[in-house]
Design brief:
Layout: H1 2-20, H2 29-40, H3 57-73, H4 90-99, H5 102-111, H6 120-126
Helix pairs in contact: 1-2, 4-5
């Protein structure tokens, strides 16, 4: 539950940050929030990831976005700050398929069979 609330706050901060980026700042609000989360949770294992089943497409997209934000926080790539542009890794996709409804599992599994560099936004659109 704490993680889900944190993700919603982070998504809200991203919207604020996009508006603030119109002005020149050395460090945006989004970057500050990501940095604070990274300082608070030293590794991805410390950050509670919700492992419950998702039932609707909207919940699946939300779960994918949560995984991308965690990927940003603990990534060494300092250029990726937008959760929509994070590459959807096979590990992330397998976790999403495993937590999804049984009737969707085979269709979801074939959506990302290869190692292509599709973003989380690309994959969310496919859902």
């Amino acid at each position: 539950m704490v993680y889900k609330k944190l993700i919603k706050i982070l998504e809200f901060v991203l919207v604020i940050d996009q508006e603030m980026m119109r002005e020149a700042h050395s460090c945006s609000l989004w970057e500050r929030v990501l940095g604070s989360v990274a300082q608070r949770y030293l590794c991805a294992d410390d950050l509670y990831m919700q492992q419950t089943q998702w039932k609707t497409i909207e919940q699946g997209i939300q779960r994918l976005r949560e995984m991308t934000v965690a990927e940003i926080v603990f990534s060494d790539d300092i250029n990726t700050k937008n959760p929509n542009l994070v590459p959807c890794t096979p590990v992330m996709w397998r976790k999403l398929v495993r937590l999804g409804p049984q009737e969707y599992s085979s269709a979801l599994a074939i959506m990302k069979r290869d190692e292509t560099e599709e973003t989380a936004l690309d994959m969310a659109k496919k859902l």
